[in-house]
């Protein structure tokens, strides 16, 4: 097991080099994603919210908020809790993992 | 990867509904078939649709059993994530040069557990959900995908090794390379299907620019129970719309964008989606702005009547321009044909552009069969042999020959398989006769 682990770590290094490493724009993309998810999670700790309310709370564009909320929903970290007028409300799923992206089962 | 043989009776290119049906019909007659699909899963457009007109049956419920049957058939070998680089005729058969793209996963070892996807931290716009849903940088294409195998997308991989760390089978292979294969086939069936005209094709409609001007394929995903949203909603702010407009012929019957023909399914898919919006959100108004309603198939005229009875509004009008309001609403400038050409500005909160169908693959110089001017495969004897291409031994089915619906694609796939079977029989008899003749002349 240890041997194979070492093997993939070496392979990963080569893979990363072959793919040209992590560019500045990729770094920026990843940082932005982390920041948005952190802001959304932190706002939702106060209870379920609609996308416009979340956008106001996080000062992010509603379109970006929606996309990230849907991503969290797909991977089981956020659930829809009902409607507020014509807007679905989203809340944190209890006990969901807090890593930046992962941990829910993809459909 | 499936064990690939050196020679098949038939190679089917394209694993949508037409290609799967053609493969099944040919294999069902005892022939060995190779089915080649360029995406990571078979199923084509149909597996992502919500329901099908005119029956409103669940699309994936019809499509997935066929996918499973094609993938597990004892006489069909399946190659996914594979591009066809060349098809050429070489003494009595066809030679296909193929390029299997790396998934960075050892297919034989992977059990499709999805742990790699769960462990990956990076969300990426999902092609299957037309960008509104997310996938990870390593992902199984969707719940109904066949094969249920992940693909790693190097462009979004952050090289943190999270996937490899959790893989219980140690089957992430970062050094996997594209693999070149060559196979021979007695006959070829091409069923490479459709893509839609680009959203940006008609600049005056704001597709690709305005968040709430969307594609009908995104609408299908939003209406699907396994779709990204769970509701029809505005991509700008997540609001369930109260007023939806369909702009018909927004990419067909239009010489200015090089698509002079009718795409044949847009009227029906728009009516279908409109009925379903009304059923789920009875308070939402749906208006179709159309030039002509073409409801040509079995049960289609009744389906149109049903849409009207369910409160879908149809307005004969030309949409000249769409502009966006600060709140994301859209104003359509329309010429109302039935009101003597009066021009009106009408506000909606979501607009669907009924984009036209164009060929997904234009293999000029790759396949010897000729294409028509519009890029679909030429069918020289269209009235009498609708599945025959310009090359003896190469057959065509589904939208690869021109826009059509699922029933017509399936019928044409059956015809292509039958033509291929007759061709193979003819070739083998000719070969047997030639062998007998040469034996006689040797004696
Ligand atoms: C929004 C929308 C809604 C629709 N709703 C309905 C409906 O309700 N009812 C109905 O009857 N019809 C409907 N249709 C039409 C339906 O989608 C088509 O009739 C059907 O998908 C045609 O099947 P096909 O196999 O020919 O093509 P596709 O579904 O496009 O499949 C082609 C396959 O070939 C693969 N491929 C392409 N190029 C290559 C290559 N070079 N090498 C290998 N593989 C390749 C593709 O990846 C794909 O998997 C709808 C269409 C749209 C756009």
Helix tally of chain B?
8
How does the major sheet of chain B shape up?
A: 7 strands, mixed
**Apparent shape of chain A:** elongated
Q: How many beta-strand runs of chain A?
A: 2
Q: Whole-number average pLDDT of chain B?
A: 96
Order of helical and strand elements of chain A: HHHHEE
Average pLDDT number of chain A? 89
Could you name the CATH class of the largest domain in chain B? Alpha Beta
Quaternary structure type? heterodimer
The DSSP helix count of chain A reads 4
Q: If classified by CATH, what would the architecture of the domain at 27-92 in chain A be? A: Orthogonal Bundle
Number of DSSP strand runs of chain B: 22
What are the low-pLDDT stretches of chain A, counting only 5+ consecutive residues below 50? 100-107
Query: What is the distance, rounded to the nearest whole angstrom, between the alpha carbons of the first and last residues of chain A?
Result: 30 Å
Our estimate of the beta-strand percent of chain B is 15-25%
Which regions of chain B have little confidence, pLDDT < 50, spanning 5+ residues? none
Largest interface (CB < 8 Å) = A-B, 43 and 47 residues
- Write out the CATH superfamily name of the largest domain in chain B: FAD/NAD(P)-binding domain
């Amino acid at each position: 097991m240890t041997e194979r682990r070492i093997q993939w770590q070496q392979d990963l290094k080569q893979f990363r080099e072959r793919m040209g490493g992590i560019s500045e724009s990729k770094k920026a993309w990843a940082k932005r994603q982390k920041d948005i998810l952190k802001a959304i999670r932190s706002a939702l700790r106060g209870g379920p919210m609609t996308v416009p309310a979340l956008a106001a709370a996080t000062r992010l564009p509603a379109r970006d908020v929606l996309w990230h909320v849907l991503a969290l929903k797909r991977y089981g970290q956020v659930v829809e809790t009902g409607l507020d007028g014509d807007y679905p409300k989203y809340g944190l799923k209890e006990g969901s993992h807090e890593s930046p992206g992962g941990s829910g089962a993809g459909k | 990867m499936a064990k690939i043989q050196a020679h098949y009776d038939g190679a089917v290119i394209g694993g949508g509904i037409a290609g799967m049906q053609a493969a099944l019909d040919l294999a069902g007659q005892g022939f060995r078939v190779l089915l080649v699909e360029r995406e990571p899963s078979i199923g084509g457009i149909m597996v992502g649709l919500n329901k099908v007109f005119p029956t409103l049956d669940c699309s994936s419920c019809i499509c997935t059993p066929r996918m499973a049957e094609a993938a597990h058939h004892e006489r069909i070998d399946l190659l996914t994530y594979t591009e066809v680089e060349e098809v050429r005729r070489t003494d009595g058969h066809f030679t296909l040069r193929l390029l299997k793209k790396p998934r960075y996963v050892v297919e034989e070892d992977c059990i499709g557990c999805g742990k790699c996807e769960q462990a990956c931290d990076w969300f990426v716009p999902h092609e299957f959900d037309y960008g509104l849903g997310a996938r990870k940088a390593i992902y199984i294409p969707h719940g109904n995908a066949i094969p249920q195998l992940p693909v790693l997308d190097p462009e979004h991989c952050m090289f943190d090794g999270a996937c490899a760390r959790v893989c219980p089978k140690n089957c992430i292979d970062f050094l996997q390379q594209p693999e070149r294969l060559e196979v021979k086939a007695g006959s070829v069936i091409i069923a490479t299907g459709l893509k839609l005209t680009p959203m940006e094709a008609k600049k005056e409609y704001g597709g690709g620019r305005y968040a709430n001007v969307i594609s009908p394929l995104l609408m299908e995903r939003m209406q699907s129970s396994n779709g990204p949203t769970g509701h029809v909603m505005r991509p700008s702010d997540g609001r369930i719309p109260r007023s939806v407009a369909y702009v018909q012929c927004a990419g067909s019957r239009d010489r200015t964008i090089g698509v002079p023909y009718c795409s044949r399914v847009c009227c029906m898919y728009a009516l279908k989606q409109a009925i379903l919006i009304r059923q789920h959100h009875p308070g939402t108004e749906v208006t179709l702005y159309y030039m002509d309603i073409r409801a040509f198939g079995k049960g289609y005229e009744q389906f149109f009547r049903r849409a009207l009875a369910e409160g879908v509004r149809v307005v004969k009008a030309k949409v000249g321009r769409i502009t966006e309001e600060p709140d994301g609403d859209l104003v359509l400038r329309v010429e109302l044909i039935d009101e003597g050409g009066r021009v009106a500005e009408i506000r909606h909160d979501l607009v669907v552009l009924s984009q036209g169908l164009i060929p997904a693959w234009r293999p000029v110089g790759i396949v010897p069969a000729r294409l028509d001017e519009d890029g679909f495969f030429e069918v020289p004897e269209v009235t009498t042999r609708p599945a025959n291409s310009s090359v003896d031994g190469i057959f065509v089915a589904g939208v690869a020959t021109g826009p059509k619906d699922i029933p017509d694609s399936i019928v044409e796939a059956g015809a292509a398989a039958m033509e291929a079977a007759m061709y193979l029989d003819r070739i083998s008899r000719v070969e047997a006769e030639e062998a007998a003749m040469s034996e006689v002349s040797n004696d």
